[in-house]
Every structure is written in C-alpha cells, then in structure tokens.
Design goal:
By secondary structure, the chain is an alpha+beta fold. It has three helices and three strands. Strands 1-2-3 form a three-stranded antiparallel sheet, covered by helices on one side.
C-alpha cells in the first residue's frame, strides 16, 4: 500500500492548509481571526499543526471502527512450510 504524504503550507492570504505533497490543492484550510493571531503571537502554525494532527488521528480511528472484524476463519490460519 502506498503511503500518501501530506504537508502543511501557509497560503498567501495567511490561512494554514493541509495538502497532498506535490499538489497545489488544499484539502483543509484553517483561518484564525486577527484577535486569535495576536493572542497566539506567531504560534498559530503550531496550533494549526496540532489541529491537523488531531483530525488525522480521528480519521484513523474512524477507519478502524469501520474495518470488518476478523472472523474465526482468519484466526485459524497457520503457515505451512
């Protein structure tokens, strides 16, 4: 299975975005209000990274929940040499 790589980028309008490496199409954008930007004092990229990390982990958790449970037949498989 191929591993997709993602990257966080800063868009010209100041938004932080997540996109697949090698593309120019953001998948997710995060916009901070001017008040929050001032409060974070330049640390908004770190906050956006944490937000993206949490979202990606949630997607993995959802996919695990959707995965079919193993059957008894799967548990009885043995390797024969």
């Amino acid at each position: 299975m191929a591993l997709t790589e993602f990257e966080l980028i800063m868009l010209d309008d100041g938004e932080v975005a997540l996109q697949r490496s090698g593309t120019d199409e953001p998948l997710v954008r995060i916009t901070f209000s001017p008040e929050v930007l001032e409060y974070l004092d330049g640390k908004h990229v770190e906050v956006a990274k944490s937000m993206m990390d949490a979202g990606i982990q949630t997607v993995f958790d959802i996919n695990e929940e959707r995965a079919p449970a193993g059957t008894d037949a799967d548990e009885k498989r043995h390797t024969v040499h």
